[in-house]
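re: ur question from the group chat, yeah i did fold both. here u go
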Amino acid sequence: MTESLGRALAGNFLGHASNWYKLTILGFLVLNPVVMIIAGPFVAGWLLVAEFIFTLAMALKCYPLQPGGLLVVEAVIIGLTSPETVYRETEHNFPVILLLIFVVAGIWFLRDMLLFVFGRILLGVRSKRLLSVLFCACAAFLSAFLDALTVTAMVIAVAHGFYTIYHRVESGQHDPTNDSWMEDASVPELQRRDLDQFRAFLRSLVMHAAVGTALGGVCTIVGEPQNLIIGKVAGWQFVEFFVRMAPVTLPVFLIGLVTCLLLEITGWFGYGAELSPTVRKVLTEFQRHTDQSRSLRERTALVMQGLAACVLVVALGFHVAEVGLIGLLIIVLATAMNGVVEEQRLGHAFEAALPFTALLVVFFAVVAVIQDQALFAPLSSWILTLEGHLQVIMYFLAAGALSVVSDNVFVGTVYITEAQNALMAARISREQFDLLAVAINTGTNIPSVATPNGQAAFLFLLTSALAPVIRLSYGGMVWMALPYAISMTVVALLAVAFIL
């Protein structure tokens, strides 16, 4: 009986995850209190950060919510942080939570219109190189005025829609409620190679677009949450923020597009996959059949979704309310005008967002540990002892390095607050403060593309339903983002060093 109970508990722990993964998580849980006692909370805090990054890296083995959640629960128990700090950090990021819950669901109700528009772009532009640059540039432009998570949600909805169409056609699974289309076993052997190539095609487009959200997001005060915080502290409005960032952001934007084109030309780092003629034929025929069979009511629904999308863009562009509340507005408009009034149909829209929302709160708990144990304090204190332009350069490098392993919003908030305190204490001049603000903003936005945990949009992509079906893992994202991270960071550093 004891042996059977033990086997049952082991089998239930983290479900279908590999045994070595389960043992690793258990090892972390045993190790953390020991390190806390022997080496102290500072070392234990950094160990927790590394362990959480490990759970993100193994997201395809096990969704990070459960193992990451166990780690942060233990962190609270052993005193690395407190429930009050976790709640305060979550409350501080409440607008992001609202955004995830409502905007992502709102995009779900616009998916037919998005597939209609992007289907014509994807099938109309036959040059993969031009298509990639278009995806990257459009994502950058939208992210400069909208939220990067909103743009990423749009990209995910489009890519997932195209993948679903092709997979269901080739596997013969036309029932949208049947999830067996997720399995390759239902696809005939002859079509497997086309399916793998289609996955590679979508991976490259999605990664180009994801990097594009960073390229555009760094440029304006509304592009990323930390931009708004930094701009508010510095007293900059929209135009002044753009002008002050331009010496760094414009060269970075150009090198980002050049990198996109070169990656497609060379085919390095997993890019360059073309849309095979077989897949193009399937998608084209599906599009033609859908257009011919679309009823007047369905065409009207597309128009209403398009109008709702226009409302979304205008409302976000003019910031008439918090982003999450605008998302709720889109849900109301898109469902009320298209007859989606059943609770069951509404519930499907929230399935993609809520697991990631829970994971993000776990991430905020890790940030609470960073805050309570002052894990960044030694580096920050040392940088403030430097003088002149060297201090600006080191702020950029430090903000970039820490944003790679932590939340760039938190890093930006910590560093701009320290710079503001130094200004108020007359340790730096106003001119130096302005340069530091530019360095902090560009440092948190640009090098952080190197890892999924650096930016919420990247983390959302990694943990979305799209990532496993197109075989996009943590390591895969790091590898595909590497050339962008290197080229963009080098150009940004040169700009900070010689143009500012």
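okk and heres the other one u asked abt
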Amino acid sequence: MGDPAGIGGELTLRAWQALHRDGPCFVAVDDPRRLAALGRDVPIKQVASADAASGAFAKALPVLPVSLPAWPKLGRPDAANAKAVIQSIEQAAALCLRGETSGMVTNPINKAALYDAGFAYPGHTEFLAALTGATGRQIMMLASPELRVVPVTVHASLRNSIAMLTTEAIVAAVRTTVQALQHEFGIARPRLAVAGLNPHAGEQGALGDEERTIIGPAIAALREGGIDVSGPWPPDTMFTARARSQYDVAICMYHDQALIPLKTLDMDRGVNVTLGLPIVRTSPDHGTAYDIAGKGVADPASLIAAIQLAAELGKRRANA
């Protein structure tokens, strides 16, 4: 569902319009009344199970109903709907855990609007890790046709991200990423490039020593384990077209170091993928966009890419 005051609902409708002829098939976990009000040109079919969605998908958007207690006002988040938003996430995760769907795609949420309803997590990623018993093993990857990136530290201030950075955290992130690239992305021997933390990757310690004391030892340990990993690379040059051709994923030290190059290169097709979970989860690489909600100008490209990638990863995971 995502935040019902944001653009998630209209993107879901437009994704169905783009995919209902050729797929992949999906079912919306949402309030069918609000979807019907948002898209009068999209037929809505309330279904009782995910299995029923495939038979309905070609002619109507199938919806597993979650009732909103308050009618949403576009652009104005309402705490009264927070529990329904949380319920939609829980229900989608349960469908995946039971094997009724091959993956889940989450529309953007407003975390502040959920906190009063008992939501105690920094975001979807941490909540889904708790729901699936994978707390501490989840990793965020942002993927597009141009670039894949994994930040070792995520939703923390820059100061705290640097303090949180350890050799063990880098090693764990890389190992989880390698497993996902092999089993879900179909890359038999992934090539990973590890970013430095400091300008010029520390300039042999002149501009910082984290490359020598934290990042370098992680790379050495990973190489000893047979992983094709290189670095630490200067962050200001490792995202050029020539550099990107030499690796399958960039391991970055903090949130913006990873997301700025990806969003600059391919904002419209960027997809957030949670690695390390027992289920497939993707999401579009943007927020609730309250300022344009209901104006008919929101671009569904990232959500469509997220749906297509979830189907692809779910198929590969099943085969593996």
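fwiw on the second one: The first strand starts at residue 28 and ends at 30. The domain at 1-132+283-320 is CATH 3.40.718.10 (Isopropylmalate Dehydrogenase). idk if thats what u expected
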